[in-house]
């Protein structure tokens, strides 16, 4: 069985439509004749011929793939990839120090919120608001619909404001679903007595 030796040039010319398409994707237009002349002169000048160890012969490529993708070899390749890519990134992450502690706010705490649009003679902080729910980075406060990042709030001394402004919370079972509870709150504002 006479097997012809292929060269990079013969392979590229036999698949020239793919070469032209890749060049077009790189915003370059090439012509077959000029490309052939360029490759022949360039490869001879720099002695960049066919790689001595490589081949495009399909049976040899399939044998190589069988060797590379046996179970043992696959595990070895994955282990090498972990050593060279994953572990250095993990090491760098842990060398920077432990992850930061979560914020100190808990449900029931009182906070002031930073105003996003600060105007003249307007306080920078609004509130106080009571914290309803928390995540490691955000708070849900009473009276504000969107969640607030914990860096945009400031703790309040609970003894600085009147007890009458503390909201009263009540829970009622949902009318449609007995497994749900509805939370309602109202503020107990001081009543002014008129003489």
UniProtKB/TrEMBL annotation:
GO molecular function: endonuclease activity; hydrolase activity; nucleotidyltransferase activity
Keywords from the UniProt entry: Endonuclease, Hydrolase, Nuclease, Nucleotidyltransferase, Transferase
InterPro entries: G_retro_matrix, G_retro_matrix_sf, MLVIN_C, Retroviral_Gag-Pol_poly, Retrovr_matrix
Top-rank lineage group of the source organism: Eukaryota
SUPFAM superfamilies per record: Retroviral matrix proteins
Murine leukemia virus integrase C-terminal domain mapped to chain residues: 103-158
Signal peptide: none
Residue ranges constituting the Gamma-retroviral matrix protein domain according to the UniProt record: 2-70
Name this protein carries in UniProt: (raccoon dog) hypothetical protein
Organism: Nyctereutes procyonoides (Raccoon dog)
């Amino acid at each position: 069985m006479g097997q012809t030796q292929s060269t990079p040039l013969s392979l590229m010319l036999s698949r020239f439509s793919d070469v032209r398409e890749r060049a077009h994707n790189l915003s370059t237009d090439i012509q077959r004749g000029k490309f052939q002349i360029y490759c022949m002169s360039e490869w001879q000048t720099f002695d960049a011929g066919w790689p001595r160890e490589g081949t495009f012969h399909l049976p040899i490529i399939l044998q190589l793939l069988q060797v590379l993708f046996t179970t043992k070899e696959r595990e070895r390749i994955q282990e090498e990839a972990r050593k060279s890519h994953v572990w250095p990134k993990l090491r760098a992450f842990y060398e920077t120090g432990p992850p930061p502690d979560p914020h100190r706010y808990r449900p029931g705490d009182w906070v002031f919120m930073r105003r996003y649009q600060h105007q003249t003679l307007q306080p920078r902080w609004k509130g106080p608001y009571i914290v309803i729910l928390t995540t490691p980075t955000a708070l849900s406060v009473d009276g504000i619909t969107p969640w607030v990042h914990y860096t945009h709030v400031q703790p309040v001394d609970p003894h600085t404001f009147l007890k009458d402004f503390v909201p009263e919370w009540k829970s009622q079972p949902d009318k449609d679903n007995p497994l749900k509870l509805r939370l309602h709150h109202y503020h107990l504002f001081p009543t002014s007595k008129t003489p």
